[in-house]
Design goal:
This protein has two domains: about 180 residues, Rossmann fold; about 200 residues, Dehydroquinate synthase-like, alpha domain (Up-down Bundle), CATH 1.20.1090. It is α/β, with parallel strands linked by helices. It is built from 13 helices and twelve strands. Helices cover about 45% and strands about 20% of the residues. The strands form four sheets. The protein has a four-stranded parallel beta sheet, sandwiched between helices. Strands 1-2-9 form a three-stranded mixed beta sheet, with helices on both faces. The protein has a three-stranded antiparallel beta sheet with strand order 10-11-12. The radius of gyration is 20 Å and the shape is globular.
């Protein structure tokens, strides 16, 4: 079994961990967990949702048990709208009832909702206990499972409540993508296009070529092809490596930094995405689907401001169209979307910081006060009412 590895060696932080990428890794997740957890915990709280656990829970639970962990399972509800205080309270209550101690650990098995919420619960229970990420969606694999951002949504905005709490390890088994629904694949590939657009021409071309060769609409049929699995592992490794590079030199997203390597650039496409999710009560869009619209909006806005070439815009749009169909936006209230921008976590002082593009691979942070509200309104209307 060939495993690709990425070391996350944080500056000024003794907390180091690794990311492992391969196919069929869940069967040995217990051994992996034992190696990641230096304190040798007795108990493991395994948190997932019913759908994911039904597919992969037994494999992980049995593997953990073979390593003599005392495994306790809790299944939370599935969906972005359940990444909230109520779910957080239930998970924390479970930790308490299970009598976890500071030397025990938590495993998050699932997508970004599970990973974000469980990571936050681990951050605040007993003021911080160890947790491990086993992401089972493409989006979680290449984005949320790495970097230590954890949190929950609230009525006044997405991810405004949370903490930085790095995992002790990340295990990516690409075989879990075989059962991923088409919309979840589309959502994940939107995030991949986002990262490629702000990374460099090489990652952008690799992402474009992968989507050209392997359509998300027929994804599960490719898993009998060893060449596909190898290229999928390479693709995910390249995506995670880019995010790791950004996180390593700006772990906590410094408010002062405005350069092209600030962790803020990872929010490209997320200003509109978070607003769309908020105004639809987190029910209409998968997070990555909303990011897809956010990418289009930020790129169009960049072109309107004459900092992004129209030919590059067409290239980006063409690649994004390969990810699959996005949900309809005809009934979205533009006024509410515009108002939701005021609650974005990228507001610094009184100004929202927009992540735009000068060219593919060259993001630019622009202060909201420097952009005419009229241009924002016009670009938003053009995109959402097509």
């Amino acid at each position: 079994m060939k495993i690709k590895k990425i070391a996350v060696e944080l500056q000024n932080n003794p907390h180091q961990y690794g990311v492992q990428i391969g196919c069929g890794l869940l069967e040995k997740s217990g051994e992996w967990a034992r190696n990641c957890l230096l304190r040798k915990p007795k108990k493991i709280a395994l948190i997932s949702n019913a759908k994911v656990f039904g597919l992969y829970g037994d494999a992980v639970k049995d593997s953990l048990a073979r390593e003599n962990f005392e495994v306790h399972v809790f299944l939370m509800k599935d969906g972005e709208r359940y990444k909230n205080f109520r779910s957080l309270e239930l998970v924390l209550k479970f930790f308490g009832e299970t009598k976890l101690t500071r030397t025990d650990a938590v495993v998050a098995l699932g997508g970004g909702v599970v990973g974000d919420l469980v990571g936050f619960a681990a951050a605040i229970f007993l003021r911080g206990i160890s947790f491990l990420q086993i992401p089972t969606t493409l989006l979680a694999m290449i984005d949320s499972s790495v970097g230590g951002k954890t949190g929950v949504n609230a009525e006044f905005g997405k991810n405004l409540i949370g903490a930085f709490h790095q995992p002790r390890g990340v295990l990516i088994d690409v075989e879990t993508l075989k059962t991923l629904p088409r919309r979840e694949l589309t959502a994940g590939f939107c995030e991949a296009v986002k990262q490629a657009a702000i990374a460099d021409k090489n990652l952008f071309q690799q992402t474009a070529d992968f989507l050209e060769t392997y359509s998300p609409n027929n994804f599960k049929n490719y898993f009998s092809d060893e060449k596909f699995i190898s290229e999928l592992e390479d693709f995910i490794h390249a995506q995670v490596s880019f995010k790791t590079e950004i996180v390593l030199q700006d772990e906590r997203e410094s408010t002062e930094r405005l350069d092209g390597k600030s962790r803020k650039i990872l929010n490209f496409g997320h200003t509109l995405a978070h607003a769309l999710e908020k105004v639809t009560d987190y029910k209409h869009f998968k997070h990555g689907e909303a990011v897809g619209y956010g990418i289009l909006f930020a790129a169009e806005l960049s072109t309107s401001l004459e900092i992004f070439d129209e030919n590059e815009l067409k290239l980006l749009v063409d690649v994004l169209h390969r990810v699959g169909k996005l949900p309809d936006t005809q009934n979205i209230n533009l006024k509410k979307v515009f108002e939701a921008f005021a609650f974005d976590k990228k507001n610094i002082g009184e100004s929202l910081q927009w992540i735009l593009l000068e060219e593919i691979g060259k993001p630019k942070i622009v202060e909201g006060r420097d952009i005419s509200p009229t241009i924002i309104h016009q670009t938003l209307k053009k995109l959402l009412q097509k």
